[in-house]
Amino acid sequence: MVQERLQKILSNAGVASRRKAEELILAGRVQVNGQVVTTLGARADLDVDEVLVDGEPVRRDRYRYFMLNKPRGFVTTARDEQGRETVLDLVPIGDVQLHPVGRLDRESEGLVIVTNDGHLTDLLTHPRYGVEKEYLVGVDAPVPAKDIERMVRGITVDGERLRAASVRPAEPPADAEPDAGAGAWLLVTLRQGKNREIRRMLAALGRKVVVLRRLRVGPLRLGDLGSGAFRELTADEVAALYRAGRAAQAAGERAADGPERSGRLPSRR
Q1: CB-CB contact of 58 with 91 (8 Å)
Q2: What pTM was computed for the model?
Q3: Which of 80, 105, 122, 140 is catalytic?
Q4: Catalytic residue check, 54
Q5: 20-31: burial string, b at 16+ Cβ within 10 Å, e else
Q6: Which of 21, 39, 113, 269 could be bridged to 10 by S-S, CB 3.0 to 4.6 A?
């Protein structure tokens, strides 16, 4: 069971903004399992609880899920104080309050999930859970095998430990621009998702990233979606993302518990 604050549930479901949702609760217009709730800290779980606003049910199917092929030059945020174009400018679907799932820096491109489902966002972006994300990376010169191994073992940059789950050489994409300056290509899988992690690791190895494209988040792949295009996810795709997020959450919690709480004895090796 995953419980969330009522105002967050209403906001994520597109019923009202977070502030307006608080007003609805305080006005006694929200019920949970037949009981009027007027406490702002009250929680519920849409998978098991019936939540009503003015007698109308709030359903998880009111959530919206989109995948976008982000071009370079757009920032991955709901709004930008500097007035730059954001990924939400590319998904014009009306009054639903969407947000991007995680970050992809301005000069990077590729798969971005956009939704109003806060719980799925938490599952896919929580650093302890580590849902896999895969990137195609063009670098200015070949990366020796020993440096690829270092990326997997881990590299300390500015006091922060960075590491990839896997790195292997890759073929250039069909749409690779000859003048982009890519002398080699890598397929990099991350679980940590730290700020500009791939760029910082390769810079520490003396290499410059000239192309960085996200191809996959968990089981969801970019496929042949054109640059700047978006589409709504299918129910099966959303379910697969939830399964991946919950599996990663369970694995992260087991790792945090350690061998004693999980019932395992520490290895003597």
Answers
A1: no
A2: 0.76
A3: 105
A4: no
A5: ebbebbeeebbb
A6: 21
